[in-house]
Protein: Cell division protein
Amino acid sequence: MSRGPEGAPGRRGTAHVRLRWLMVVVAMGLSLFGVRAFQLQGLDPKAYAAQAEAAGAVTAVLPARRGEIVDRKGGALAESVDGDMLVADPAQTKDHAAQIARILADDIDVDYFDTLTRLEKPKSRFQYLQRRVPSTVATAVVKKLNKAGLAGVYTKPDPLRTYPAKDVAANLVGVQAQGRDDKGKITGGAGLESAFDHLLSGKDGKETYEVGDGNRIPLGDNSTVKPVDGKDLKLTIDRDLQWYVQRVLRNAVESSRSDSGSAVVMDTKTGQVLSLADYPTFDPNDTSTADKSDLGSRALQDVYEPGSVSKVLTLSSLLDEGRLTPETKLVVPPQLDIGDRTIHDWFDHPAIHLTTTGVIARSSNIGTALASRQLSDEDMWQHLRSFGLGTRTEVGMPGETRGLLPDWHGWQPINHATIAFGQGVSVNTLQMASAVNTIANGGTYVSPSLIEGSATTDSGETVGTDHTTSHRVISAKAASQMAQMMEMVPNPETGTAPGAQVNGYRVSGKTGTAQRVGADGKGYDGTFTVSFAGFAPADKPRFTVYVVVQNPRNGGGGGSIGGPAFSKIQTYLLQRYGVAPTGTKSAALPIDW
Structure:
């Protein structure tokens, strides 16, 4: 055997020694593992089980971002901003659950007992405490808990719904739903937020991962399903116009000491709703003080008898059938007896001689009832139905009423007469605005739309400007004749609403004053609905505006309350959209003979 210097062993001998030592180390390691396994499995099974139980899978929601609701120009009416959810690890909170629950109940207004149950949840490592909390509030309460030595409550991102325009279009936009019941029905929502909840909400994702001793296991099993954000909902509403219309409406309601009001602005040709306002309204950022009756849209949900505005529908139908002309002469008696009932005009008079135009300008119930006798019950019903009465507008808002147009088979002579001048029939504000818009649109009814493009409600109804329909109701000639007749209404020399004039423009309009049905539905209660509907320019209509006020207490009517509000809104519209006067002379039709 060879040796190195001074008799030292060679390299081969050194390798054998190292190998022996390595085998010894491996054997010792295996022995230690065996001893530990024996200890865990045999000598200390309870400790092992406790550690196994401490490790488990947690599933956390990855919230989808809710789609925005925006106006026709993209201005936000409802949007989601940064927020947080508060979550808890009951393994850490159960020993101090009562203290934590009390702080959370005081600081973020959660239910104390429900929170206590969640904080003490056995065998759970993850519990939701509150969704959509403002980030500053969530961070502050967690810091407060940690400072008090109360661990186990954390924050996770969770977008928060906010309404930057405050009360602007609030009755349309509504408020985000609080959740769904066990049948999947939305709870706590209102307006478009409720009607299009599935579209807006998207679909939450989820993340599942393993935890042990309160910590996430880095190399443990985990899986992620990404959230699908909600889609935006674009409205036909003009946010700035909506703000203005709401302020004008509020002034009309408050100055006349009325209960409520609504107003609609429509694009005459397209049927797009540029403004749909209600008063009273509310701020959806804080509904704690809002009256429940203010959360929906009265313009779509409430029904009322339209009164004299409906006369333009009846007389337009007669013009269309060639039964009369704007100059047809009528003798209007001081009262009209039909069976055991008597019809009066709003003003006392002897027998007077009015033209058909005069019946509109002076708003004669008797004159309208007499003229309507040239239409059969069925013909008048069919015409009013074609104008949209008795059917929903189907713009996508929840709770919309269809109004009431009684079936003609059951009409008595008194029903024919009163329905002709707008009593005994009921409408909602958008429905009646769409009917008057038919005259502005040359005799063609165009279905109103509130959603731009196409969208499907939670109930499966597809709506929007992509689905607008139209049909002819009266001839273009009859519509033009009625538009000229309606010009006599704001004329200070001939009509009942001089306050509805718009400086420099030709205006067509009609007042309405109708008795209101009492709460018991058994008769009129002595209060009134007053209104004004019209369009401008009269000879080339661009916008239709309809203002309705309920139960004024200052003695005013459709001309003195609705007329000035109409004038302000129409003036703003024509200027905002740059509509020039036509430069033509106003119609000058005879009102008497």
Q: What stands out?
A: The first strand starts at residue 56 and ends at 62. The chain is about 35% helix and 20% strand. Residues 239-283+297-576 form a domain with the Beta-lactamase fold (CATH 3.40.710.10).
